[in-house]
Design goal:
Helix content is 37%, strand content 18%. The chain is of the alpha/beta class and 374 residues long.
């Protein structure tokens, strides 16, 4: 990271006092409630401290609220005091922390009790209702904001500009594919005024590098099996380790240890088959999904993997383990239907029935991704 002008000035000042040359880093300041109208993205991989950042803002607010009326004048605009903090969770997140009190703001290593200043909501309309109901609140922390619809970004921008409210978004920017999570995440990035990037240690047992990425994997007979690129984008579930090979696990990984097999196959072979199916030529896709389900080693997926990952170097054996996970054909179907919109609902039903695919798995993942069941 390039040294800032203020960093150079501080270093030169310390040297002038006789100190040895030191690495000067940005200080970790208490939150500034005086600055109005901020839209702050707190981004980083899981375990990087995004929610703990929110808890720190909450604790800072409790201290700042004890200050005098002169401070209140500096932190308030039109009756909304930015020292008054309200925490919002997504309704999808209710099951993540079953062992904590209902009003808890939980993070790794602890939690803060928020009393009546915490709520679960489903969409940006509920946010508008809360803001209208709590005119005194000047700072709103919206956890995992990328899970909401795109409208949220503009609701927040309007309230921030018109009423000088501050919004803080501790959220993932990248999905397990290392891509911008969704259109909401992109709009939050475009409309933000401040960004605080956080990192975590890579959770690979042999590594202590900085990690920026969320890694999805499955456990099959105790083995780590990386998620394929075309794994369903959204899978609703908790943070606890899962031994069921149909349910994913997550951790944070660096570039070297973030395995993402199947991206080339997705765009070289799978998506073109979906395009053909969208034009009425469904046979190539049907054949490939049948082979994946009943005769994997004859499928184009397996042949591609054998060619793409032929040796023992660069973590390639673990890439082949991705093919040990169940419901791969189901995942390919969901990708083509729910994400790429290449298959009709009728084609989805036809292939699921014809190939005798796992209907329970399909329905669960379709629901996760906001699509109608079979």
């Amino acid at each position: 990271m390039a040294e800032t002008e203020s960093g150079r000035a501080t270093k030169n000042f310390l040297k002038s006092l006789g100190f040895p040359e030191l690495g000067i880093h940005s200080s970790f300041n208490h939150f500034d409630f005086r600055r109005p109208g901020r839209r702050i993205l707190v981004i980083g991989s899981m375990g990087s401290g995004k929610t703990e950042f929110s808890a720190r803002v909450w604790r800072d607010a409790q201290v700042a609220l004890k200050k005098s009326g002169r401070v209140a004048a500096a932190t308030s605009t039109n009756g909304a005091d930015r020292r008054q903090v309200f925490f919002i969770r997504s309704s999808l997140d209710r099951e993540r922390f079953p062992d904590y009190p209902a009003d808890a703001l939980p993070f790794r290593g602890g939690f803060e009790r928020c009393g009546n200043k915490i709520a679960d909501i489903d969409d940006s309309f509920k946010l508008e209702e809360l803001i209208d109901k709590h005119q005194e609140i000047g700072t709103w922390i919206i956890d995992e904001a990328a899970f909401y619809e795109e409208r949220l970004a503009y609701v927040v921008q309007r309230e921030s500009i018109q009423r000088s409210l501050t919004f803080i978004f501790p959220t993932l920017m990248l999905n397990f594919r290392k891509e911008i999570f969704n259109p909401t995440a992109r709009l939050l990035l475009e409309t933000a005024t401040d960004i605080f990037p956080l990192t975590a240690y890579c959770e690979h047992p042999d590594c202590i590098e900085d990690s920026f990425y969320t890694y999805r994997y499955y456990l099959t007979a105790g083995e780590e099996c990386p998620a394929l690129y075309f794994d369903p984008l959204i899978i609703i579930g908790g943070d606890r380790e899962k031994r069921d090979p149909k349910e994913p696990n997550y951790c944070t990984r660096c570039d070297l240890h973030h395995y993402l097999p199947g991206k080339e196959y997705t765009f070289l072979l799978l998506k073109p088959m979906g395009l053909k199916a969208s034009k009425g030529e469904i046979e190539p896709l049907e054949t490939e999904l049948r082979l994946i389900t009943h005769s994997m080693e004859e499928s184009e997926l397996y042949k591609h993997f054998r060619q793409r990952y032929p040796g023992e170097n660069n973590g390639q054996p673990i890439m082949m383990q991705a093919l040990k996970v169940p419901c791969i054909a189901e995942k390919a179907l969901i990708f083509l239907f729910a994400e790429q919109n290449l298959l009709t609902h009728e084609q989805l039903i036809y292939l699921a029935l014809k190939l005798e695919l796992d209907k329970d798995y399909l329905n669960k993942r379709l629901s996760d991704n906001g699509r109608s069941p079979l």
